Amino acid sequence: MSTQKPALRLEGILKTFPGVRALDNVSFSVIPGEVHALMGENGAGKSTLMKVLGGLYQPDDGQIIIDEQPVVMTSPLQAKSKGIVFIHQELSLAEELTVAENIYLGELPHKSFGRVDWKKLHAQTDSILQRLKVGFNAKTRVGELSIANQQMVEIARALTVEAKAVIFDEPTASLTDAEKVVLFDVITDLKSHGVGIIYISHRMEEIFKITDRISVLRDGQYRGTLNTAETTDDEITQLMIGRKLDLSRNASHHEVGDVALEVRELSCGALFKNIDFEVRRGEVVGFYGLVGAGRTEIAETLFGLREPTAGQIYLDGAEVTIHSPADAIAKGISLVPEDRKGQGLVLGMNCRDNMTLPQVEGLKFGPFVAETDEVAIFDKYKERLDIRTPGWKQTVGNLSGGNQQKIVIAKWLSMHPSILIVDEPTRGIDVGSKSEIHNLIRELASQGYAVIVISSEMPEVLHVSDRIIAMYSGEIMRTFTSDEVTEDNLIQAISGITSNRAA
Amino acid sequence: MSELTQEKIGLKSRRREQPVGRFSNLKLGEILARQGILIAFALFLIGFTIANDRFLAPDNIMGVVRSSAILGVMALGVTFVVLSGNLDLSVGSMMSFSTIVVLDLHDKIGPVLAIPAMFAMTMCLGALIGFLVGYLRLNSLIVTLGMLSAIHGLTLTYSGGKNMDIADKEGTWFSVFGQSDLVGIPVPILIFALLASTLGILLAKTPYGRKVYAVGGNGLAATFSGINRSRVVFTCYVLSSFCVATAGLLQASRSLGSQNTVGQGLELEVLAAVILGGASLMGGSGTIFKTVIGVLILGFIQNGLLLVGLQFYAQYIVTWIIIILAVWLDIAAKRGKLWSPIA
Ligand SMILES: Nc1ncnc2c1ncn2[C@@H]1O[C@H](COP(=O)(O)OP(=O)(O)OP(=O)(O)O)[C@@H](O)[C@H]1O
Ligand SMILES: [Mg+2]
């Protein structure tokens, strides 16, 4: 295809896990100075392929070829020494250490007698952070940073070595638009230095914006490579899922019913203040704003995880106090939380048990858990959300990122709540399933559920919401109906002043 | 299933192309890592059987199980605590307390009242720990380490430092729990088996058990699922103290007299058994069945060492070695390698 010699090649890679053929004879190459997208549905094998390249998994068969030399990659350390830098889908930072320590972990600069050269360390780190234009410094403790900023630390790591290839596995899943711009600048910069970039993402806009070529995997098999400049959304989707995607909104002009949830003057310290809104049955209300605008905190307050400092909450017209998540669940509220690994899932538990966890007390046969009912629930949502796993016994931690997210969504949908709050519901989910989840949200509304969708993705809020509440810095700036909202006035409403605050 | 085996066959035929040395190396490491404990145990068994032919004699086996019963009963409760992501280092001195209390009360208010009184007092201690760790969210290591010494002090204060003996050792029926047989099986074994199956079912089959796993596996996710984490942790400690009280009853009934330090050091042996069974100290993984296996492995190893003529006190050292081995193999099993540069 290209005359240039690839920086690295993967050939005929085969990798199986018990019951899963994750990669089947996959070949892939990166040319110096190109951004090569790796695309595919959730569970297609993208992360696995990159873990093979990064020395985390041993392939059952196949070769990694760097500079025309076959290499047996036995550890991430070795991969790094070969110039391969891996920025993971799931964060892997030491929360108790500072930013500088995390970035240079294992290779701290030394003075004589093995003493760490802190001055040099902090200076080096700060110069990298400057390149990334972030609002924290070398001495900040990583645990204090927002997820987005932690992501930036991971990216900073990549800039410390003489990289031959940098792998970004869904780097933008939790970044704000401003941070994305910075990330893309970094990528362009790396590219101009002849570094090969492998970029995994489910977001088409990004793919078209920054990549040069696109390789597609489906069910662990290589499906082909396209030149970004010569292809279309449809062609990629076709390769990825084998069919065209219907993105039209379910024109469900259902009845909007009574007010299910009403919030008056709700405040919680400095997190948010004087929040007023209501959600009716049959209505989807979108909350749009920057990360740190206070949307998640409102959701957590409604779910009994935070105590409001002022204001009232009414359910079906009656004032209530929500004491705990258990209380919220009993009152018919469900929350799909923002952080699937930390808040959504017990990673060591199997798929079925995770899915039924909030309702396990209600699924009883005598004193025992009614396991057949549980399996039925699992099967139903596996089918409905197209969850890719060999069976309910699979440990959730072994699922691909997107499939884990689907388990969290299924967990709360299966509660049949009257008020459903979803916080970044499609983070890391592929295009096909994303539209499936959007349809599901619309469908739930049409069945009389009151739904709140918190999202940092404008197309998502625009697509699913009947009304959109724009928030900035803990306050509601404006409420739009779906007729009057445009991208421009929405952006204006959420930016207040243009700032790039470190959350 | 057939798909799976097919895949495996396919996998093998492709694998043959790899350099043989590296391939077999990797495989052996993997097997060792995953089944390490059972393999090590099998080697022990074979070794002991060769060294001493009495080792696998029925009466020796029965003896091992019987002498493991007290430790086993305690390990059942500690399994719950460990699964919920906490530790319990106080069970040894708590067991001394139960034993002393029930022996003392036996002569004062009679066995019928002494037994429930002792259970109530022991479970109050469990509730106190549960409150501190569950509701106040204090570190379980610190709390139970403190309790280890505090309860020891409590026992000594209670007994005035003297040994406790039942006056009429011949005339009391109290010895049934520790000394008699039922249908040819020693009662301590029956009690251990009964408790193990009840708690095993509680853990594996009921909503409560599911919650214990969830709280230990990811406490925050459990909270987000509406589970009252504090209450679950609290009940685990109460349950553990119930098991300790049962162990104290067995101990008192077997000996009908006791020193203040009868349970000293048991907390580590119990923990060794639980880890040996494969429960993770991080919480969220392990089962009652595995703990029972762990208890038996520990029992057989200790018995075997005695039979080959090792001094009794050498057991303390051996127990430590076993703990280290078990923890190492546990981690190795998770990463599928005996050694790995990354965590
Ligand atoms: N450690 C593991 N054990 C068992 N199965 C695994 C393991 N890791 C991955 N898999 C399986 O391999 C397949 C590919 O997973 P992978 O994480 O590579 O998908 P992905 O393309 O990155 O998906 P996503 O877009 O959701 O991140 C999935 O079916 C997954 O369940
Ligand atoms: Mg992935």
UniProtKB/TrEMBL annotation, chain A:
Main location: membrane
Keywords of this entry: ATP-binding, Cell membrane, Membrane, Nucleotide-binding, Repeat, Sugar transport, Translocase, Transport
Presence of keyword Translocase: yes
Record domain ABC transporter: where: 8-244, 254-498
Stored CDD domains: ABC_Carb_Monos_I, ABC_Carb_Monos_II
Family per record: Belongs to the ABC transporter superfamily.
Name of this protein: Sugar ABC transporter ATP-binding protein
UniProtKB/TrEMBL annotation, chain B:
Topological type in the membrane: Multi-pass membrane protein
Entry annotated with the keyword Nucleotide-binding: no
GO molecular-function terms, A-Z: transmembrane transporter activity
The keyword S-adenosyl-L-methionine is assigned to this record: no
Signal peptide location: none
CDD domains according to UniProt: TM_PBP1_transp_AraH_like (cd06579)
InterPro entries, per the entry: ABC_transp_permease (IPR001851)
Record localization: Cell membrane
Record field: transmembrane: 31-51, 63-83, 112-135, 141-161, 182-204, 232-250, 270-301, 313-333
One Pfam match: BPD_transp_2
GO CC annotations on file: plasma membrane
Protein name: ABC transporter permease
Organism: Roseibium limicola
Source lineage: Bacteria, Pseudomonadati, Pseudomonadota, Alphaproteobacteria, Hyphomicrobiales
